[in-house]
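quick one before i forget lol
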Amino acid sequence: MPSHYKGKPDEILALDTLIKLSRSVNAVQGSLLPSLQRDYGITEGQLSVLEALYHLGPLSQGQLCKKVLRSGSNMTTVVDNLERDRLVKRTQSEDDRRVHIVSITERGRALMIQLLPEHVSRISGIMSALTKDEQRELGRLCRKLGTSVAR
């Protein structure tokens, strides 16, 4: 459903575009997230933390917040739950006792080795609604929008 806002044409276009972007993201996540929870017992937030640690190695909780775009309080909850399930471990930084370094455990690594190919395959299936050129263009446009907001 388009916006019912009665503003200037450029405002209406911006709102309609954001609505379409939000709905498509929600639809994609709605397709991906139930299988993560059902098959692996993890949330989207937990997957994003595990994926960052799996690919980048140990990170502070502050670095994780920036990488996965989560607040500090949310990150604490996510890491607490991952630690409870023995998928990550926290250690105190040797340089600064206020900083906790989060690293993936062998159990977490094994989960990612099992989960990631299936998850990527699902993503690939969803994205196949777009041609490769359309996927590249969508990626370019999303990056352009994201970096302009970050400035």
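fyi Strands lie at 59-60, 88-92, 100-104.
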